[in-house]
Amino acid sequence: MRLLTAVERFFERLFERPSARLFRARLQPVQIQRRIERAMEHGRLSGTERTLVPNRFRVSLNPVDLEAFAGMTTGLAAELADAALSFARAHRFTLADRPRVDLVADPLVALGEIGVSASFEEPDVGSTGPAGATGAEAAGQPPPPDGRTMVFAVPTVEGPLATLREIRPDGSAREVRLDGRPLSIGRASENGLVLRDSRVSRFHGRLQARRGALVYTDLGSTNGSLVNGVPVTEVVLGEGDRIELGGTVLVVESVSAG
User: 203 CB contacts (<8 Å, ≥6 apart)?
Assistant: First the structure.
């Protein structure tokens, strides 16, 4: 796999970049799409149950190349995000949320070059925009006057602060405080709350604020989630509720508006 990647990069440098510099050829959307797909594959986290891949992509282009897409950047970003979603589905990858693509002008990127950085991001909290819409569209914000950044994040909505008590399978316990931001839960070290429990999935569930309430969502875990002894996929929580994940119990001790 590493050898194949090295060969791909060699031919990419040999054919794509020199020709772009020599003929000032305009970048084609498919070239950006392929870079996003490659970044998704390189950033994947493989587990026994699923393969989690990045869902946020920052595409850096030379200002001249980005200007060539003037008037179609919003549509292009949406199309690239849709293509990334289709690619993930075709490869049976798992996404924390619908992909989003940011097109950004960067004078440090050479003409004809494409820089892509991939990252993991929890779903926007409180967003009521249509699926696949850019942050600017969902928030109803006009683009900035300089036009450099083509996609914007929805402002974070303050949510409830909460205190939970984690009771481990061995009977030990600790306090967990939520600050209103989404909190992923599971065995994998990438989670905000890592549980040392073999019956818990790598990415088991998520706690997040939604319209002023504390919501727990099961992320398709193998053994499922119970709240007060009842299997749940998604549920609003209150003080005293008990979330059972494998042999671990999370007790909601307090919930207050943020």
Answer: 47, 50, 52, 94, 96, 184, 186, 188, 190, 191, 219, 221
What's the CA angle centered on 56, arms 245 and 27, to 5 degrees? 155
Q: Residue 10, Cα to own-chain centre: how many angstroms?
A: 30
In the numeric block, the tokens 């088991």 are attached to 204
Share of the chain above pLDDT 90, in %: 42
CB 126 within 8 A of CB 211: yes
Classify residue 186 as left (phi > 0), alpha (psi -120 to 50) or beta: left
- If 0-12 CB within 10 Å is exposed, 13-18 middle and 19+ buried, where does residue 52 land? buried
Summarised one tens digit per residue, pLDDT across range 117-164 is 998 886 654 443 333 333 333 333 344 444 333 333 333 444 568 999
> Rounded to the nearest 5°, which phi and psi values hold at 253?
-90, -30
Rounded distance, CA 25 to CA 16, Å?
A: 10
d(CA 246, CA 208): 20
Q: Are strands 56-61 and 173-178 parallel, antiparallel or unpaired?
A: unpaired
Please list the alpha-helical segments (H only) found in 43-162.
63-67, 73-90, 135-139
Token code pair at residue 88: 């993930």
Cα 99 from Cα 53, distance rounded (Å) = 10
Residue 100 near residue 151 (C-beta atoms within 8 A): yes
Phi-psi region of 53 (alpha: psi -120 to 50; beta: other; left: phi over 0): beta
